[in-house]
Design brief:
This protein is 49% helix and 16% strand. By secondary structure, the protein is of the alpha+beta class. Helix 18 packs across helix 20 and helix 21 runs antiparallel to helix 22. 33% of the residues are buried. The structure holds 2'-deoxycytidine-5'-triphosphate and magnesium ion.
């Protein structure tokens, strides 16, 4: 491939997806006007209902008024809010079919996926062109931009397609077009297989990048596919509104219309990158300059799962949350919903979210104010997530609250293949064969004496590799979920216990210091100082091997560091700055500072 634009990219988008899922469950709805509503708002409209003027986002009653014969299905409710699990799982069925044919696939939404089929096309180029030449396939649902007309008229489609195909097959030099024709054959097959296996129709866009594939896909629906060649872009862009292009639907599109008077994509061609940089940053300006010419370098990132999982709810009008009781109730519901989905996701995709993002909106003088805060997530426990969310939102104390969203993101894999448990079993097997190597050079436990023996044994038996593994599963080791912990092989359970002990120990000391008594710290020192000074001791906090005679000093450093961190956190969260310079907190901070000063000396 000489350039990224030589890629063959496809967008598959399911037709009126929620409606198809519902009519698969209730076949008597198939072929009839149908809408799927959530909270009385229409989210999906069947093509039969669209033909009768029903549109998305109207209220169910309005849909009924427009089309008295309409069937209205309310989507399932769970935790007091709409539950899309059924639709998500149906989308997953389609992904499973596509996965059999294409590795480079990115799930873009509940019913959309991008596929990079460049390699597949290469491998089938010659044979597919022969098939097309021999007219063994009719590409029955394929449209070609610039050839097949803008409507879904079949005669026009067929005539235009044949004209284009003749050109493609005669001109052996138009490699791009030949590869797009091959792609069209492959996509017809994929769509047929989806219909056979899942009973869903879908539409597709076939072109050289994500933006063009997405644009092409929307041109002919339902149950159709559209080829967009680069040579047709200038003409097509004369009629494409700016906000219909991927990534231009929001603020950027609005700025282009307001600041540059761009109505259609062809208008954007008039501006140089420098001119665009007067409004946009360099990266955006460059992207806009390229997209005006149909160029988009964004790769299809292999990803079959969504980047984040969120449980959200709007609280419109009288439903707005006005007190802490209401807030507590709803964060509990949303956390419950989130946890159910995260647990399912863990089972399905063997990954754990590491970050929790709490977003909420409240009204101030009838204006909506949005806030969002992210923090580490080391547990899938409903209560802990609810507490964290409650803490974040209530700290703000602004009412009424009109939206709450609890999102989990930054996922880490917990295994590459096979089941969760098998992974750890395999890993455990590997570990035992590595034990000999890992043991070399370590002091024998019997070499130690006194009270410190037990603690040192624990520390010394700890293995850095185990800690790395443990961190893959529990990125926030501060908050380990015991129920999941019990599923792990014993060495990882031990590692976690050791880690927690190390934490408890420093917590204990922290508490003692905060209370104005330093005896806890001294105890740790005296225990450790009874050990063999020639040995190195693994630090339970930072995992470094520390010479025995430096160990107590090292522990003190962590104690002070932890204390400092906890002060920093409370300072960050505090809404009012410390005003009283003589406050006890200030005195404590000074003590820590002087302690660090002492260490540096
Ligand atoms: N959906 C939703 N909320 C939105 C938009 C869509 O819950 N704001 C749901 C309902 C849709 C599904 O997601 O059925 C897929 O969205 P699409 O935009 O792909 O719309 P459809 O699949 O319904 O129709 P189309 O045939 O135009 O793709
Ligand atoms: Mg769709």
């Amino acid at each position: 491939m000489s350039s990224p634009e030589d890629r063959i990219i496809v967008l598959i988008d399911m037709d009126c997806f929620f409606c198809q899922v519902e009519s698969r469950d209730q076949p008597h709805l198939k072929g009839h006007p149908l809408v799927v509503s959530q909270n009385n708002v229409v989210l999906a409209v069947s093509y039969e209902a669209r033909a009768l003027g029903v549109t998305r986002f109207i209220r169910s009653e309005e849909a009924k008024k427009k089309c008295p014969s309409i069937n209205i299905v309310n989507s399932p409710i769970s935790h007091g809010k709409s539950d899309n699990t059924k639709y998500r799982m149906a989308g997953q069925e389609v992904i499973q079919v596509l996965k059999q044919h294409c590795e480079t696939m990115e799930r873009a939404s509940i019913d959309e996926a991008y596929l990079d089929i460049t390699k597949l096309v290469e491998s089938r180029l010659e044979s597919s062109l022969n098939t097309l030449r021999d007219q063994k396939t009719s590409l029955a649902n394929t449209f070609v931009v610039g050839y097949s007309g803008v409507s879904n008229d079949e005669a026009e489609r067929s005539e235009g397609l044949q004209r284009w195909l003749k050109q493609v097959l005669d001109d052996i030099h138009d490699d791009q077009a030949r590869r797009l024709a091959t792609a069209a054959m492959i996509v017809e097959e994929l769509r047929k297989e989806i219909l056979e296996k899942c009973s869903f129709t879908c539409s597709a866009g076939i072109s050289h990048n994500k933006a063009l594939a997405k644009l092409a896909c929307g041109l002919h629906k339902p149950n159709k596919q559209t080829i967009l060649t680069t040579s047709e872009i200038p003409e097509l862009f004369k009629s494409i509104p700016v906000n219909k292009v991927r990534n231009l639907g929001g603020k950027i599109g609005k700025q282009l219309m307001e600041n540059f008077d761009c109505r259609v994509m062809a208008d954007l061609m008039r501006f140089s990158q420098q001119e665009l940089m007067k409004t946009f940053d360099e990266k955006t300006a460059k992207w806009l300059f390229n997209i005006a010419r149909g160029i988009d370098h964004e790769l299809v990132t292999p990803r079959l799962t969504c980047k984040s999982i969120a449980a959200s709810k709007n609280f419109f009008g009288k439903a707005a949350i006005t007190d802490l009781e209401g807030l507590k109730e709803w964060v509990g519901e949303l956390a419950g919903d989130l946890v159910e989905r995260l647990q399912q996701d863990l089972e399905d995709n063997q990954r754990r979210a590491t970050t929790l993002t709490v977003s909420f909106q409240y009204l101030v003088e009838k204006k909506t104010v949005s806030q969002s805060k992210s923090c580490g997530m080391g547990t899938y426990k409903r209560e802990r997530i609810a507490e964290t969310a409650f803490d974040i939102i209530s700290r703000n104390m602004q009412m009424p609250i009109v939206l709450i969203s609890l999102g989990a993101n930054k996922f880490v894999e917990v295994q590459k293949t096979g089941r969760f448990m098998e992974y750890f079993k395999r890993d455990g097997e590997k570990k035992s064969s590595e034990t000999e190597e890992g043991e070399r050079g370590r002091p024998r436990v019997e070499e130690m004496s006194g009270i410190a023996l037990k603690e040192k044994k624990d520390v010394l038996e700890s293995d850095g590799a185990n800690l790395v593994k443990l961190k893959e599963i529990f990125p926030d080791l501060e908050d380990i979920d015991q129920s999941v912990l019990q599923l792990l092989p014993i060495e990882l359970q031990n590692e976690a216990t050791l880690y927690m002990k190390g934490k408890d120990k420093s917590e204990e000391c922290k508490n003692t210091i905060s209370g104005g008594n330093s005896s806890g710290m001294k105890t740790v020192r005296s225990e450790v100082s009874s050990g063999n000074r020639s040995l190195k001791i693994g630090c339970g906090e930072c995992r470094e091997m520390i010479p025995g005679d430096k160990y107590s000093e090292h522990c003190d450093f962590h104690i002070a560091q932890n204390l400092q961190e906890s002060f920093n956190q409370s300072l960050e969260y505090s809404r009012t700055r410390i005003r009283d310079r003589r406050s006890p907190r200030r005195n404590k901070t000074r003590r820590i500072e002087s302690y660090f000063g002492k260490l540096e000396d």
